[in-house]
Amino acid sequence: MRYPNAEFLFVGASDRMEMEKVPQAGYAIIGLWISGLQRSLSAKNLLFPFKLVSSLLKSRRIVRKFKPHAAIGTGGYASAPLLKVASGKGVPCLIQEQNSHAGITNKWLGKSVDTICTAYEGMERFFPSEKIVLTGNPVRQDLLEITSKEKEAKAFFKLDPSRKTLLVLGGSLGARKINQLVNATLDYFIAENIQVIWQCGKLYEEQYLHTSGKEIQVHAFLNKMDLAYAAADVVVSRAGALSVSELCLVGKPVVFIPSPNVSEDHQTKNALSISEKNAAILLRENEADERFQQVIQTLLQDEKKQKKLSENIKKLAKPKAAIAIVDEVEKLLNPT
Questions:
Q1: I need a surface site. Which of 86, 203, 228, 275 has the fewest CB within 10 A?
Q2: How far apart are CA 251 and CA 147, in angstroms?
Q3: Could you tell me the residue range of the domain that residue 297 belongs to?
Q4: pTM, two decimal places
Q5: How many CB atoms lie within 10 A of CB 163?
Q6: For 207-225, what is the mean pLDDT?
Q7: Residues 173 and 207 in one domain
């Protein structure tokens, strides 16, 4: 740790998951009454001006009391009022844009902050080019090297090393459409002796856990992600920013099924930025019912395709992203 005596204060949206997760990690957090605008006409949008004013006032009190030497935002709703106040008070500010298509919050803050760390090239269309630093997204350090863990991973999940293994990921809560696709394809997997590690998500465990067995392993959550990746021959995943960064690092052949129900359809844009480089397969939800089984079957049978996808996606990895971002923060703390 470069600054062992540094103090950290997190600021989040009061009704979001960070209010639970950050204290569990041992850090203090303050909640703001803030949320995004609804894309459809909604009575909730009428509250937005009041939430914004409330959050700006509270952010002023936070900055005045905590006296930060630097402020960092990662695109969440709470970043907007906090960093707007901090930058206005002369506090050096950095934002990290995790996606290939910048979110509303970061686009709004782009002109105010000092440094913008991005995970994808071509972000000049959203931000001032002189502020951009291509760093990548930070990922778990236990994913830096998984090839040597393959034997351990197969044993951990009690898999047959001679059979192909498909890893299905839908995020901690789960992805409804991906779960439906896998569930509809179970007979094919069993008939073709394909082993499946299926992370169905917390919201869907009651619906699907009963289908779990030796060949089709259903998990609400995977605690050993390094071993899950190491065991897989092919991965099916959503295309959230951090998932994409992890999959670039582990270098497994991937079929991305991006969620279309996210702001500015950023998951599809994330997946496109990888698939256009022949580094992954993009399967859109609106065509997945017809094509899912065919895409999986073709990829599992084509080892040359698997190898090419694996080689290409590894080239996009940024294994030292966390270090690079800390370097940029340090420049703000110690300007020359």
A1: 203
A2: 10
A3: 141-314
A4: 0.87
A5: 13
A6: 90
A7: yes
